[in-house]
């Protein structure tokens, strides 16, 4: 599995070094999350009760239905799939017109009949939709899309000029691929599209694309944080009319671009072809409370929350509790 980057899809040929660095760093970081997470999950699944106790503490509420050790090993195996991820391809050129998705190296993969190019993927900083046609066309993957679909709405939100925090029912990212490609479609890679408004919001941070500030940690570790965040969900419905169950840890998840990318990777066919759990038994595919209740290990957000909780301990020294609270070690 190989990837490259679509830095932008407008007519500008101006290099965007900050965006490029953010995308390259993001891929490196999520691969580190997966590698470190797999190692810690292996420790937590040990039959020695003294091994991996800290990791077990931050993921137990998400994997305690059935046999915890077996569940942890299953997630470990899913994380290890990312070991085979190569790229970004084509980043060596200094010529923007020959870089990443425009590079000779990426074009060579398309022309290689043995490369299964449809399993490779593009990481796109924005969607590119042509509405001039009878049906909207995804110009990056050259395929019609359904009006009002998630990708169509992501594009509309990004092109609206509305600030990210003011958007309603906002969508961070969407993954697309051909289910059973034939003929020329085998030469079309899968793609992860990010909302331009989400990227712009990430860039506005200080430092850019940094999620976990001292101010945010102070908010989620406040002594009344569980009550405060629960109240934020009172009387609020999601896009399907369901009550929101918000925990302090959800604020840490929601701010992180790397967490969003980690989530989208597991939608790709090469990494499991997983779908957001919107079954009748589900209160929603997202968030700590919903995933602790459902514990569907084929739901990308469960895997992502597990990886994020492990990373918070490693990089920041914060522990997510069994109830979705957060505290400093």
- The stretches of 5 or more residues where confidence is low (pLDDT under 50) are none
Number-wise, the strands total 9
Helix content: 40-55%
Oligomeric state of shown chains: single chain
Task: Please give the radius of gyration in angstroms.
Answer: 20 Å
Walk me through the structure.
- The chain is an alpha/beta fold and 329 residues long.
- 41% of the residues lie in helices and 9% in strands.
- The strands form 3 sheets. Strands 1-2-7-6 form a 4-stranded mixed sheet, sandwiched between helices. Strands 3-4-5 form a 3-stranded antiparallel sheet, with no helix packed on it. Strands 8-9 form a two-stranded antiparallel ribbon.
- The longest helix has 28 residues, at 17-44.
- It is globular and about 50 Å long.
- The model has no long low-confidence stretch (mean pLDDT 89).
List keywords for this structure.
three-stranded antiparallel sheet; 12 helices; 329 residues; alpha/beta; four-stranded mixed sheet
